[in-house]
Specification:
single chain, about 140 residues, alpha+beta, Bacterial Protein-export protein SecB, four-stranded antiparallel beta sheet, two-stranded antiparallel ribbon, 1 helix
């Protein structure tokens, strides 16, 4: 398994964007201790030409029985990676970043999305729908 000590990698957070925010009419407030469920997806897209990776994070906030969607939000974290071409697979012509790097970028994207969710849902019925701590190794 790779670790970050063995990887020579420069990464700069170059931008953060709110791509989508949809909220259904929500009863307010939810009972204290209400458990929300979440569908979380992080997709990494690479551009060799401009040397960036974009982590697009999508989150659905669901009822405790996962039958009702209260909201969905989509964000983009843009990472500038000057040496991204070092990870170009000549056979597939695809960027193949190290697994630990993908996990790190996903973790940053999820944490950033958590903060955006807090700001966007403040003062609404979803004020306490805090995105849980996610181990990026568990993302598929």
């Amino acid at each position: 398994m790779e670790n970050l000590e063995n990887i020579n990698f420069e990464i700069k957070l170059a931008g953060v964007e709110l791509l989508e925010n949809k909220m259904e009419e929500v009863r307010s407030p939810f009972p204290k201790g209400y458990t929300f469920n979440y569908n979380i997806k992080v997709e990494l897209k690479h551009s060799i030409d401009i040397k960036i990776t974009v982590a697009i994070t999508s989150v659905d906030i669901l009822s405790d029985d996962s039958q009702t969607k209260f909201a969905s939000i989509k964000t983009a974290c843009i990472f500038q990676i000057p040496n991204i071409t070092n990870y170009l697979d000549e056979t597939t012509h695809q960027i193949e970043l190290p697994v630990v790097t993908n996990q790190m970028l996903s973790s940053i994207a999820i944490s950033t999305t958590r903060g955006i969710m807090f700001a966007e849902f403040r003062g609404t019925g979803l004020h306490h729908a805090f995105l849980p701590i996610i181990d990026p190794k568990q993302l598929k």
